[in-house]
Design a protein that fits this description.
There is one protein chain. The chain has about 250 residues and is α+β, with helices and mostly antiparallel strands. It has 2 domains: about 120 residues, Protein Yojf, Chain: A (Distorted Sandwich), CATH 2.70.180; about 120 residues, Trna Endonuclease, Chain: A, domain 1 (3-Layer(aba) Sandwich), CATH 3.40.1350. It contains 4 helices and 15 strands. The strands form 3 sheets. Strands 1, 2, 3, 4, 5, 6, 7 and 8 form an 8-stranded antiparallel beta sheet that branches. A 5-stranded mixed beta sheet has the order 9-10-11-12-13, sandwiched between helices. The radius of gyration is 28 Å and the shape is elongated.
Length: about 250
């Protein structure tokens, strides 16, 4: 269900909101685009002078106010906010209250461009792929992508200089430090791996610790620096199966 009204007067706007939104506020989203003044009291106090903005009330009570530019909202209130509408001095007034934390926001509209009421249904969960954890999970489930006989014993091992992505042992029981990058490897990644390897050498009192940098792409100058430090590399490309069954590789991100 989607309803809208263009350039309504304050009284027309109030009637529209009462008819299509007020009784179903937990089931409909309300969007008002127009010129408004915003007075906020709560975590701080603010006054936003007249300007054309987008005001959105979501089905859980969340309020978002956007100006024509920038990504972040200029004002907002969290889920559970209670909102009421009335008319004062020929202006449509929107009064919002939230108790924990205590705060209130009053918005006065003097020129409304459009009001939209819609019933939206969305139960999908955001799935993020193409992250470093995708490659880490691939290596943990199949260490053979690095080399045969590799055993992963720990994820996110803490050492003095940071957190090692993966720690394990090769087929000859030599400790192996693995640093994973989701995109092209850089010189800073080499330095990071080098510090981790040195930390492990001090911790386990052995000079024989291998370090392997894993990434979908490793430039030649990075490979040369790794060789100079006695470190290794593997170009690991993970195939990711998304819920729509479309396959992408790490090179697509």
């Amino acid at each position: 269900m989607i309803k809208h009204v263009l350039t309504p007067t304050a009284s027309e706007a109030l009637k529209f909101i009462e008819k299509y939104h007020r009784s179903t506020a937990d089931k409909t989203i309300l969007i008002i685009i127009g010129e408004c003044l915003i007075n906020y009291h709560g975590r701080a106090r603010s006054l936003l002078d007249w300007g054309e903005r987008i005001v959105m009330i979501k089905q859980d009570g969340t309020i978002i106010v956007h100006q024509p530019v920038m990504r972040e909202p200029v004002n907002w209130q969290p889920a559970g906010t209670i909102t009421r509408f009335d008319i004062k001095n020929h202006l449509l007034n929107m009064k919002s209250y939230h108790t924990h934390p205590p705060e209130k926001m009053n918005i006065s509209f003097r020129d409304i461009k459009i009001i939209v009421v819609a019933s939206l249904h969305d139960h999908a969960q955001l799935l993020i792929s193409g992250m470093e954890t995708d490659i880490v999970n691939e290596i943990v489930s199949n260490p053979g992508v690095i080399e045969e006989g590799l055993r992963i014993s720990k994820r996110e091992k803490h050492v003095k200089s940071g957190i090692i992505d993966l720690f394990g042992y090769d087929k000859n029981h030599v400790p192996v430090v693995i640093e994973v990058k989701r995109s092209q490897a850089t010189i800073s990644a080499v330095q990071q791996l080098r510090m981790y390897v040195n930390d492990m050498k001090r911790d386990i009192e052995t000079a024989n610790v291998r370090g392997i940098l894993c990434a979908p792409k490793i430039p030649d100058m990075v490979k040369k620096l790794l060789s100079d430090y006695g470190l290794e590399w593997r170009e690991v490309e993970r195939r990711i199966v998304l819920p729509d069954d479309k396959q992408k590789t790490l090179k697509d991100f």
